[in-house]
Amino acid sequence: MAKKAPTFACTACGDTFTRWAGKCQSCGTLNAITEISANEAQVAAKGREQIRAAATLATEAANAPAAAEQHPRHTTGMNEIDRVLGGGLVPGGVTLLGGEPGIGKSTLLAQICGAIGRSHAVLYVTAEESVAQVRARLERLSALSPHLHLASTNDAATIAGAIASDQYRLVVVDSIQMLTQDGVDGEPGGVAQCRSCAATLVEATKRSGRDRSQPASLMIVGHVTKDGTLAGPRLLEHLVDTVLSFEGDRYQDLRVVRAVKNRYGSTNDIALLRMGGEGLIEVADPTGLFIADRDPGVAGSCVVPTLDGNRCLLVEVQALVNQSDYPQPVRKVAGADQNRVAMILAVLSRRLRMPLGSCDVFVNVTGGARIQEPAADLAIALAVASAWRDLPVPADLVALGEVGLGGELRPATRYDLRASEARRLGFQRLIGPGAGGGRGRIVVARLNDAIEAALG
Ligand code: TYD
Ligand code: MG
User: Fold this and answer.
1) Pocket of ligand 1 contains residue 105 by CB under 6 Å
2) Given 132, 211, 284, 451, which residue has the most CB atoms within 10 angstroms?
3) Are 384 and 345 within 8 A, CB to CB?
4) Phi, then psi, of 123 in degrees rounded to 5
5) How do residues 80-132 score in pLDDT, each as one tens digit?
6) Which pLDDT score, from 0 to 100, does residue 34 have?
C-alpha cells in the first residue's frame, strides 16, 4: 500500500505531518498545526525541495552598476517629459502610457519617436491606425526621420521578435488593447490578452541587448476609459517599470503627464503641456497659468500657492455668498473637495459667528485647476469671508494653511518654495501659521486672526 500522504502542516515552519499535534515537532511552535489537503501537502513538500535547490541563486554586489543604468538615457525632446521620467527613457526600461482615448497619447509617442529617431533606430508599431495615418501625423509634427521605421501589426509575438532583434533603441506600441497572442483565450483588450501580450513584450525588452551593447526601450500605450470597461493600465502596472498617466480633459487644451509608478525616478514631478496645432508644446512657466485672468479688486477671491508634486502652481479660489431664497441653501463647489468646503463653512459659522446657514455659498477654483491639499483651507476660508464682508483680499497676498475644527491653523509643507514662487509672480505677502518670519510673512495661529489681518 502506498505511504499515506501527510495531511497536517505547521503554519510557522511549513513542515508536514501525518497526525495533528498541539506542538510542532520541527520548530516547537504551539497551536500552529492545521489540516491541509493532500494536494496542498504535495505542493508544500515540493516547495521545500525547491527551496533547497534555490541555494544556487546567483548574486551580485549591491554597489555594482544596475544593468539598466549602464547606458545613457534617451532624451525625449521635451524637458518636461524627461523630468517626469527621472531624466529620460532608460534603455531596457518599459514605460506604459495610459490615458483616455483622444487625449493625445499617439501624438506624444510620435513626437518622442521623432526626437529619438534623429540619432537612434526607432520602431513605431501601430495596431490601431494604418501606417499611412501614422506617417501623416509624423509629417504634420515634423517628426519624420531616416532612423524611424513604421510597422502595422497586432501580433504580440512578432513585435517581441522585433524588440529582441536588437535593431532598435526604442520600440513604441500603440496600443496594448489591440494586440493578440496565439494560444491565449479571449478578445483583444480583455484581461488575458492584455496581460500576456504585455508580459511577452516586457520579456523581449529585458532580454534585448544581451549580446550587443545597448538594450531597447519599450513604450506601450494603454487606453483607460472612465467606466473602466477596457482592461486598463492598472492591470499592467506591476509588469512595467514606469507608468505615465496622461490627463487633461478638465483643462481644455492643457495636458498633465504624471508618473504613477517609476522604478527609475520619483513620482513627484508632473509635466504640463499644451495641445496645439503643432502637437504638444511644453508650458514654459506654469506657475502663474491659472491666475492669468484674475481681477484682484473683487471681493471673494484669494490666491493659494499649491503644490502638485514638486511644482508650485498658484491658483485662485473664488467664493460668492448670497442670502438664500430657499429653505435649503445652495452649496456648490467646483475644483475643491466638497466635504472640505463644508467643514470650513461650519468652522466659519460656529467659531466666527458668520451666519452662513441662511446663505447660498458657491466656491470655484478658476481655470479648471483642482485643489487637492488641505493647505488650501485658509484661502477658501478667506475667499468666503471676503465675499461675506464684501471686502477684497489685498492684491499682493497669498494664503496658506490647514484649518482645524477649533478654528486653529496648521502649517503646510515647503513654505520657502511656495513663498518664493508667489513672490516671483508679484505676491509680496504670505499669510499663514507656522514658525519662521521672513520677508512678507504674516504669521497667524487662528482663523479669526487671519481674517482680521487680511480683511481688517
Ligand atoms: P491622439 O494622439 O490621436 O490621441 P490618443 O492617441 O490618446 O487617442 O490625439 C487626439 C487629439 O489631438 C485629436 O482630437 C486631434 C488632436 N491633435 C491636435 O490638436 N494637434 C495635433 O497636432 C495632433 C497630432 C492632434
Ligand atoms: Mg491613439
Assistant:
1) yes
2) 451
3) yes
4) -120, 125
5) 999 999 999 999 999 999 988 889 999 999 999 999 999 999 999 999 999 99
6) 82
Type of residue at 326: Y
Beta-carbon contacts of 363 under 8 Å, excluding residues fewer than 6 positions away, are 317, 318, 319, 332, 333, 334, 336, 341, 380, 383, 384
Asked whether 111 lines ligand 1 (CB < 6 A), one says no
Q: Which ligand is nearest to the CA of 108?
A: 1
Sequence ranges of the domains in the chain: 7-55, 79-284, 288-455
The helix or strand, by DSSP H or E, that contains position 451, with its residue range, turns out to be helix 447-455
Mutate to test the pocket of ligand 1, among 125, 141, 275 (most ligand atoms within 8 A of CB): 275
Bridge partners, 432 (sequence order)? 443
Residue nearest to atom 12 of ligand 1 (CA): 104
Q: Is the CB of 228 under 6 A from ligand 1?
A: no
Question: Domain 79-284 - what CATH class?
Answer: alpha beta
Q: How is residue 271 annotated by DSSP?
A: E
Please tell me whether residue 281 adopts helix, strand or coil conformation.
strand
- The second-level CATH assignment, the architecture, of 288-455 is 2-Layer Sandwich (3.30)
C-alpha cell at 386: 471676503
User: What residue has cell string 522585433?
Assistant: 162
> CB–CB of 398/305 below 8 Å?
yes
Which atom of ligand 1 lies nearest, measured to the CA of 105? 7
